[in-house]
Amino acid sequence: MTLAAVQVEVRYEMRSAVRPTTVTLEPGELVALVGPNGAGKSTLLRALAGLVAHAGSVTWRGAALTRLDGRTRARTVAYLPQDPPVHWPLAASEVVGLGRLPHRAYGAERSTADDEAIAGAMRQTDTLAFAARSVHRLSVGERARVLLARALAVEAPVLLVDEPIAMLDPYHQLDVMRVLQRYAAGGTAPRLVVAVLHDLGLAARFCARALLLNDGAVVGDGPAEDTLSAAAIRAHYRVEPFIARHDGEPLIVPWRALPRASDAD
Amino acid sequence: MSAPTARMRPPQWALGIFLGVLVLVAAGASLLIGRDGGGPTFGFGGPELADVIFREIRLPRTLLAVLVGGTLGLCGAGLQGLLRNPLAEPGLLGASSGAAFGAVIVFYFGLAGASSLLLPLGAVAGSLLALGVLYALAGRRGDFLTIVLAGIAINALAAALTSLALNFAPSPYAALEILFWMLGSLADRSLAHVYLALPLMVPGWLLVAAAARGLDALTLGEETASSLGFAPQRSQWLVIGGTALAVGGAVAVTGVVGFVGLVVPHLLRRAVGQHPSRLLLPSFLGGALLTTLADVAIRLLPPGPELKLGVVTALLGAPFFLHLVMRGSARAGSLQ
């Protein structure tokens, strides 16, 4: 019951976007994938989703994702890219309904299970109010939540989301982190959620585990609060953090950019 | 717990049945209305002629209007879904102009008189050749923009070669014959033309229809479509291969009938809630309806030389296209 990446490496032309990486992810976990811009977070997420050519293997319950047929893989791994397009002005609920495509046979109408998954995903993302509105008429944040609902509606045991809260207001940032936590805890069985995040404070608070990437390599892995130590943030983000506790939970605020190496002398 | 519905809309089959009935009515009119030197005629003339007029003239013409119009509508909807652009249409890929060139070659060598079937065969060969060149240019894993650019190049090349053939036409009469054929018409076709086009059209339709769910998935971009289990490459070649076959068959028997594939999906898109897959069947029926009506309208005009169908659709379609561009509808979708 694990998603295992063994010696996964992604190369774009000559450059390694992700260096050979071996990592095992367990259901029930909300895992933060953190690291500075260009660290390879999104590329590793795509490799975990089986969407990018890579060396090594990604297996779910021992079966290689690339060997699964498209629909089985789609029902196993749901993936939300960063800021995906919506090319036609579909109603919000219809966009969410696209997440049910892997569950539906050709030409089949929506089943009750489809309807429930769509309504449930929209309730969780607080998007029911504009279910009938065209996605082209929504604000950026509303649209981002509709697209998250689309990914939730797949009801896959593995959910991979790329910066799901980047466009959201504080209320919905907190709300979505809670939703991802609940999704990982699972309805009937625990599920795995991997989220690329830039908000280190929310990552430390809500995620059981964090993978810290830099320059295509995993440089930190463990409980989120430990991985995001002041030393690690200094070393890999080049930022002096303010770290405290509030209500017994970690609070991390990036405080000051450290001078670049070239400015040091 | 019921899911939120987008908007109160009649169910999908209602639109299909509505359009289907209209197609039947239009086809009935097309069977009843004819034309001779004195303008439109109604009914089948004398009882001794009725059978011949029905079977040899009206029936093939009506069947071809429905089949060719349906093909253009369906393929237009498929291509617009694939390219996620409301300005896409079958002519875009070069299948039409390739087919036209193939037919022109048959004219050029004066073979059209030898057998009435040589002309359509030349057109099919031209269409398949255009697709082959497209495949070679855009490659198996070609992205959409490459395909569109390759289509433009093929169109330009086919047009240039057609002009070359006109330039060297053995006689002014041959050049005129070529030009007239290229205008696109359903007049003076026989059931043999139907039998020739159908074996190309039906597999073409099935290929395009097989891409339906993939087109829905592509609404969210290629990456999300892949993650939903619908590889964009597969959808791409289903739609493009299907279009080349079906449109090749259509152009082979009628010449180039433009804009039906552009206009029809656009008019129906709102009625199906913008879903690319739900647009396919209504666009087939809508294309059949529009083409049949246009072909009936031609016969109702006052006496004089009969207008070519391709001229009528272009006269109606070009301003519509301009209207779309001016209104900025092109922004609704985008090439990737």
* Element-by-element helix/strand order of chain B: HEEHHHHHHHHHHHH
Low-confidence stretches of chain A: none
Under the CATH scheme, the architecture of chain B is: Orthogonal Bundle
Approximately how much helix is present in the residues of chain A? 25-40%
Structural category of chain B: mainly alpha
According to CATH, what is the topology of chain A? Rossmann fold
How do you describe this structure in short?
Chain A has one domain (3-263): P-loop containing nucleotide triphosphate hydrolases (Rossmann fold). Chain A is 31% helix and 29% strand.
Characterization of this structure:
The complex is a heterodimer of chains A (265) and B (336). Chain A is α/β, with parallel strands linked by helices. Chain A has one domain: 3-Layer(aba) Sandwich (Rossmann fold). Helix content of chain A is 31%, strand content 29%. In chain A, the strands form three sheets. Chain A has a six-stranded mixed β-sheet, with helices on both faces. A four-stranded antiparallel β-sheet of chain A has the order 2-1-4-5. In chain A, strand 1 and strand 2 form a beta hairpin. The longest helix of chain A has 16 residues, at 170-185. Chain A is globular and about 60 Å long. The model of chain A has no long low-confidence stretch (mean pLDDT 93). In chain B, strand 1 and strand 2 form a beta hairpin. Chain B is globular and about 65 Å long. Chain B has a two-stranded antiparallel ribbon. Chain B is mainly alpha-helical. Chain B has helices spanning 12-32, 47-83, 95-108, 118-138, 144-167, 172-182, 191-210, 212-218, 221-227, 232-254, 260-268, 280-300, 309-327; strands spanning 33-36, 39-42. Chain B starts with 11 loop residues before the first helix and ends in a 9-residue tail after the last helix. The interface between A and B is large, with 50 and 32 residues.
